[in-house]
């Protein structure tokens, strides 16, 4: 049995027993500051596609996937950014979950979603070396622009520590089989289908780059 197993959490997760509803509604009603912050942020569409779940079954893994991504994004920023940058940055906002396709869609700031997305496609966690980093950074700059890619964040990622709990959570996330990680090339302006016309799949970026070079 899982050493971290908590029977109360088990019943809360599976049958909705003893959920602190007032806590969630209070957090929502007191979140106007973050809603206003979002309006002032330059967010991009960030989509992760997992192996497509069976259409005839509920989406059992929704909560752990969602919480793991939110938590790791926060942890990345806390470790990689200065205090001022961290305080001015925003979280990863959930936009939608497409039940039939396994796609989780978020909105986040480009600098940080590029680090998150690249490391998820590599199945890397903080403190691990990223293979061919210089080459990957050049390709990212080619697709997203020179000023949109910060090499210092990737370098800090390699030097950061990852708590055991986070390592286990990320391994569980990888076990759900990530098929694609896509980021929009243009900021989100309220019409997500416009962004989806021009998104980059970070899992395919290297093969796309090589194919383009063959045509030159």
Q: Any idea what the shape is?
A: globular
N-to-C series of helices and strands = HHHEHHEEHHHHEHEH
As an assembly, this protein is single chain
Strand content: 5-15%
Number of helices: 11
> CA-to-CA gap between the ends?
57 Å
Spans of at least 5 consecutive residues with low confidence? none
The tally of structural domains comes to: 1
**Helicity range of the residues?**
40-55%
Quickly list its features.
single chain, 216 residues, alpha+beta, five-stranded antiparallel sheet
What's a concise summary of this model?
The protein is α+β, with helices and mostly antiparallel strands and 216 residues long. It has helices spanning 7-15, 21-29, 32-40, 62-80, 83-88, 110-122, 133-144, 151-159, 164-175, 192-196, 205-214; strands at 43-50, 93-98, 103-109, 178-184, 199-201.
Give an overview in words.
- With 216 residues, the protein is an alpha+beta fold.
- The chain has one domain.
- Helices cover 52% and strands 14% of the residues.
- The chain is built from 11 helices and 5 strands.
- The protein has helices spanning 7-15, 21-29, 32-40, 62-80, 83-88, 110-122, 133-144, 151-159, 164-175, 192-196, 205-214; strands spanning 43-50, 93-98, 103-109, 178-184, 199-201.
- The protein has a 5-stranded antiparallel sheet.
- Strand 2 (93-98) and strand 3 form a beta hairpin.
- Helix 4 packs across helix 9 (164-175).
- The radius of gyration is 18 Å and the shape is globular.
